[in-house]
Amino acid sequence: MQTNKEGLYCSGGKNWISIGSEGDVYPCNSLVYNKDHLLGNMLDGPVKLSKDFMRCPWQGCQQICDRHWSSKAVFKDGLVTDQENVINPSVFEGKKNPAAMIWAASWVCNYNCQYCGLPKDTRKTTADQWVEAFKQFLDLNEFDGGLFNTNGGEPLFYDGIEKVFAFMADRGFAISLTTNLSSDIWNKVVHAAPPEKWGIINCSLHVTEPKFNWEIFAGRILALKAMGYPVSVNYVGHPSQVMLAPEYAEYFTKRGIGFCLIPMIGQYGKFNFPTIESYPPAMRDVLKAHCPDSLKDTNRFDDGKRVEAK
Fold it and tell me: Which residues, other chains included, contact 102 with Cβ-Cβ below 8 Å and sequence gap of 6+?
């Protein structure tokens, strides 16, 4: 790690990146949302990544994907005083030069959740264009596999996304997907790659969205599990949904499906909860009961220092 200034350094921009639907490449998921520290555009030309850690421009790691899939190091007084590696290095086993990345095929979504803060500027592309772009990117940076996360928007609404899944699986990447399950899972998941090629299918549960259909959601996640696909439920912890979480948690945990409630920390519309403790007591009890893993997360950094779990 080449350092000339104290603070938090990260593998973002080295072997962890976030790619927006317009093709822009950023060192992490936090920066892609804020369009900060652009590394280049994958669709417009080759993007060569750094071979070293980058000093974090924010000196903090708040996004859960960034915390779990980038390695961190704190440099102080000429020494690395603190270090945190990726949460699950098993996806890198046997790889000479692995990478983890998160890709938004499109920011378009069939839901209209009032708490959604995602970008809206989606570039018109084809799956074939993306396959060619990823081929050039992997070849140029000599990546031989790792983890390929896909989110959105609703990624399964993207026409031909199964081509990208199949290509990345063939190149040694475990495929991960965040989806609301309201679109075509059969051609775009089941027929794209077999269960062993998938890292996790993270099924986002938005129970207060008017277009949400419980029978479709439950039926599809249970079908995927029955066919051997790795599935889990990501219950969106907006204040309007928090108190409904226990009944859904009971349903899925009884069926052997992981359930994770990730609380919304910060300001969302007129809600402002800077910490778990700032939630009302009844909501706080639900959050603490159903999101212990995220509350104990040791990968959180702020102001160049690790935030100790409470």
Answer: 17, 18, 19, 29, 65, 69, 149, 150, 151
Residue 206's nearest CA partner among 175, 242, 257, 177 is 242
φ, ψ at 231 (rounded to 5°): -125, 155
Which residue type is seen at 241?
Q
Sequence spans of domains, the chain: 7-305
CATH code 3.30.1660 for 7-305: no
Cα 220 to the center of its chain, rounded Å: 21
Residue 146: what pLDDT?
A: 96
Give exposure, 252-290, as e/b (b: 16+ Cβ within 10 Å): beeeebebbbbbbbeebeeeebeebeebeeebbebbeeb
Report pLDDT digits (tens) over 151-210. Answer: 988 999 899 999 999 999 999 999 999 999 998 899 999 999 999 999 999 999 999 999
Dihedral sign for Cα atoms in the order 147, 104, 215, 116: positive
Q: Which two tokens stand for residue 272?
A: 């402002």
Per-residue pLDDT tens for 3-41? 679 999 999 999 999 999 999 999 998 888 888 899 999
Beta-sheet strand order (sheet of 79-84): 54-55, 7-10, 72-76, 79-84
Rg (CA), the chain: 19
Contact 252, 225 (CB under 8 A): no
Residue 294 pLDDT exceeds 60 = no
Given the DSSP bridges, would you call strands 301-302 and 146-151 parallel, antiparallel or unpaired? unpaired
